Amino acid sequence: MSCLNSASENSSGALRRFLPSAFLFALLIAGCTRSGPPADLVIINGAEPESLDPAILTGQADGRVALALFEGLTRYSPTNGAPTPGLAERWEISPDGKVYTFFLRRNAVWSTGEPITARDFVYSWLRVLDPATASEYAGPLFYVKNGEAFNTGKIKDPSHVGVKAIDDRTLQVELVNPTAFFLDLCAYPTLAAVPHQSIERHGDRWLMTRPVPTSGAYELVAWRLNDRIRLRKNPRYWDAAGTQNEIVDLLPCINANTALNLYETGAADVVWDKNLVPVEMLDLLLKRPDFHHYDFLGTYFYRYNVTRRPFDDPRVRKAFALVIDKQRIVERITRGGERIASSYTPPGVGGYQPPEGLGYAPERARQLLAEAGFPDGKGFPSFHFLFDTSSKVHEQIAIEFQEMWRRELGIKAELRKLEWKTYLRAQAELDFDLCRSSWIGDYNDPNTFLDMFMSNNGNNRTGWKSARYDQLLREANAQLDPSKRFRTLQEAETLLVREDAPIVPLYIYTGIEYYDPDRIKGIFPNLRAEHPLRAIRKVKPAAGRPASLR
Residue 35's pLDDT is what? Predict the structure, then answer.
């Protein structure tokens, strides 16, 4: 208790200047919900979601909500993020590891009462793969036989895709190769069951109608832009008895000071994401027992648009990378214990050790730039570095890049800042020269990082296509010997971060979340930072807790 009191006292002066605006904001929040009951749990969820449709969502904030509304064959364990039975109560795997037979629960029904059947999964997965859907996350279904061929238009008949409804309760899935992480993929929001009746009736507006049939632990009550998403417990969910809260509000917020204010004044119970911790107060806040710090399966990096000159030249890309002082960035800007990244895949993921990428070598960078036709930066065309407004850290890092490139290469970068949704659109449309990016792994295997840069993957967003890289990934994922598989993946990652270098890894994330552990239960640290809303519950605060933690 002495540590807790000390941390609160040390930070109270710094916090005091943030509180007045927070009280006003909390009153506004309260005013928005007078027509309905107060929420049992309030979470600050980061940026405003772009979509809640599992087939087309792209952001982490989107996925958290979608996972509460829609469930897959498996679902994530709250304790370690591992896949556990979801809408499928059990499954069988063929001896060769290529055919999965899933048996759906008899009490699996939509929130509107209709049975959830194997045909709902066939519809949902084919909808993701349909080129007309333009899903950027269709890649996880490329492990299904003919999934990639159907998505890229090489085959037109969906019946050739390896997902079949044997009967209402039995789904059979045939894979291209044995895939050790397939059950993890089945818990991913993109592979969740969505309501075909509602989608076919209402088209793109299906999430705007009420009631929205959901397959997960919660129903969608309201989505008010720039205010909140309100969820209500789904009483027909197969595990409704295990769902802890009746009403959950998720607030959009990208300002770290505002997030901290709302938390300190009791207007929010949980705040996800390190970006929502004020960097200037990080040293103090990390000493408090309600600020939780853990290893995280994520990498911060930047991409090149290799379809634009002069970034179509690997020598230019390497030159830019070789003058980035990553140590300076983690020590002076992020300051959360991040590890600098040489590779793209975090070391140790699934037992994999990635290869070394490009280091820090300014003299070599200048040589490469001269070889590319730009000695001392002379004649280098104008270009811009794109980042988003979701955190001021992104802008601080971009300014550091700008100075490093000017000082070491004699090149001037223009900075381009966009609001979150516009930034995502620009990135997807390759409307950038260089772009800040990050990736949070979907499962504990290096493939979750590496397959996104295959030529046909919607998350590639660099314009880079390498037949050799694609082949290596396919060979690796068909390999049953783990050591041989990892060697093949290392060869592929060497292409990605050292030889062709369409991306530049910067640092490996650490996770930070804040909530009072005496009041909030059901949140457990895990590499994926996967915390199902159904498992989180709020209890009464312990007597004698400091006011800032109640």
Answer: 52
| Proportion of the chain in helix, strand, coil states, percent, rounded to 5 | 40, 20, 40
Segments of 305-420 assigned E as strands = 339-340, 384-388, 414-418
Q: In the predicted model, what is the mean pLDDT of residues 198-218?
A: 95
How far is 46 from 421, CA to CA, in rounded Å? 13
Burial of 546 (0-12, 13-18, 19+ CB in 10 A): middle
* The model's pTM: 0.80
Q: How many CB atoms lie within 10 A of CB 252?
A: 18
92 SS3 class: strand
Q: What CA–CA distances, in Å, run from 517 to 172, 288, 355, 523, 524? A: 42, 11, 39, 9, 10
Among left, alpha and beta (phi > 0; psi -120 to 50; other), residue 468 is alpha
Q: Determine how many CB atoms are found less than 10 A away from the CB of residue 373.
A: 13
Question: Is there a cis peptide before residue 213, judged by omega within 30 degrees of 0?
Answer: no
User: Could you give the residue ranges of the DSSP H alpha helices within 136-208?
Assistant: 147-151, 182-185, 196-202
Residue 168 per-residue DSSP state = T
Residue 145: how many CA atoms within 13 Å on its side-chain side? 17
* Domains, the chain: 2-48+212-290+515-549 (3.40.190.10), 71-193 (3.90.76.10), 295-510 (3.10.105.10)
Angle between helices 467-477 and 482-494 (to 10 degrees): 160
What does the pLDDT read at residue 543?
A: 56
**In whole angstroms, how large is the CA radius of gyration of the chain?**
24
Q: How confident is the model at residue 234 (pLDDT cuts 50, 70, 90)?
A: very high
Highest-scoring range by mean pLDDT, 11-20, 35-44, 498-507: 498-507
Among 187, 182, 186, which Cα is nearest to 75's? 187
Give the mean model confidence (pLDDT) for residues 314-335: 96
CB 519 within 8 A of CB 540: yes
**Contact in structure between 322 and 374 (CB atoms under 8 Å):** no
For residue 346, give the 3-state DSSP assignment: coil
- Where is pLDDT greater, at 132 or 10? 132
Q: Which residue has the tokens 């370690």?
A: 80
CB–CB of 74/187 below 8 Å? yes
Is residue 151 a contact partner of residue 172, using CB atoms and an 8 Å limit?
no
What are the CA-CA distances from residue 407 to residues 183, 322, 381, 384, 404 (Å)? Answer: 49, 13, 17, 17, 5
Instruction: Look at the chain and count its residues.
Output: 550
d(CA 346, CA 42): 32
Q: Provide the H-helix boundaries in 314-354.
A: 314-322, 326-329
Among 384, 305, 288, 300, residue whose Cα is nearest residue 338 = 300
Give how far Cα 34 sits from Cα of 28, 37, 39, 182, 223, Å: 10, 7, 11, 45, 16
Rounded average pLDDT over 237-244 = 97
**How far apart (Å, rounded) are the C-alpha atoms in residues 211 and 207?**
9
Residue 493 near residue 344, CB atoms below 8 Å:
yes
Residue 76 forms beta bridges with which residues? 83
Give the number of other CB atoms < 10 A from CB of residue 326: 20
